[in-house]
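Quick one, tokens below. Sequence please?
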């Protein structure tokens, strides 16, 4: 398979990132075409690659990415290796801060027989993954961030295998391992905080339940008072009943002593006495009278 003519130019393809201690490589793979852009640039992968390089140099990264994408599409149509165009499209993505897309395009650029280009794709994909790791860490997604750091270490390891003299790849490989350890510590601290919060929420829930039960206690006291009043009334009724029975027994005993009345006669006498007493009470109520309206001379 033929490949587009290309050369390497320095100029900071991979800018410094927020991750301290990381080393970067300033290599940009572009096509060299002496002639000016022509009308067939839309179908010619070389012309599209040149247009992307010019837009990239002018810091028009979105336009550069579009041109590199077009170059990759046209290269496939003409049975050319699209890895160069995809590599450069990843560079534009990186400049735009789109680390996810950059990593994906670099993965596609790895599908090339050019071992030198492949080694650079491994290296820069590891770099893009460290950028993704930083974004995930800021979002609090520590588990995903740790996975990104682990994958980055793998990319740098592959780059070292293809070029054992690449000291930058070695430094970034060690850095990726260190970042994994730091993220593991942060994960453990976060888990500890989550457990503490869970315990606090549980304690608060139990306290709220206890408070609700305490609020119901006065009602229980009122129910007890009602029960006491009911028991008191029952005791009074029982006392009256006992008193009546005692009176009956006393009347019967008195009649038995005198020998003048039988128990039945004594009971009749007692009932007569009660009726007489009740009649006297009714008479008293009748004598009290009822209030009557009066006329008043104003």
């Amino acid at each position: 398979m033929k490949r587009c003519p290309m050369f390497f130019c320095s100029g900071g393809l991979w800018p410094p990132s927020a991750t301290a201690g990381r080393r970067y490589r300033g290599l940009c793979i572009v096509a060299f075409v002496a002639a000016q852009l022509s009308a067939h640039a839309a179908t010619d992968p070389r012309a599209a690659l040149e247009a992307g390089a010019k837009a990239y140099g002018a810091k028009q990264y979105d336009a550069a990415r579009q041109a590199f994408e077009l170059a990759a599409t046209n290269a496939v149509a003409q049975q050319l290796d699209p890895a160069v165009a995809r590599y450069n499209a990843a560079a534009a993505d990186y400049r735009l801060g789109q680390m996810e897309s950059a990593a994906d395009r670099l993965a596609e650029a790895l599908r090339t027989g050019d071992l030198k280009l492949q080694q650079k794709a491994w290296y820069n994909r590891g770099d893009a993954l460290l950028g993704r790791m930083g974004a995930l860490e800021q979002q609090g997604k520590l588990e995903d961030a740790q996975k990104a750091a682990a994958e980055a270490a793998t990319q740098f390891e592959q780059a070292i295998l293809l070029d054992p003299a690449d000291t930058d790849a070695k430094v970034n490989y060690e850095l990726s391992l260190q970042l994994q350890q730091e993220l593991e510590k942060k994960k453990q601290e976060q888990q500890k905080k989550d457990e503490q919060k869970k315990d606090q929420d549980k304690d608060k829930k139990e306290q709220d339940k206890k408070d609700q039960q305490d609020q119901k206690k006065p009602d229980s006291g009122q129910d007890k008072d009602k029960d006491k009043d009911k028991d008191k009334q029952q005791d009074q009724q029982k006392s009256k009943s006992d008193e009546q029975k005692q009176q009956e027994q006393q009347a019967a005993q008195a009649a038995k002593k005198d020998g003048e009345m039988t128990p039945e006669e004594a009971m009749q006498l007692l009932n007569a006495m009660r009726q007489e007493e009740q009649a006297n009470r009714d008479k008293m109520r009748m004598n009290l009278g009822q209030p009557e309206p009066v006329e008043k001379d104003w």
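Residues 1-21, 26-38, 286-298 have pLDDT under 50 and may be disordered. The chain has eight helices and two strands.
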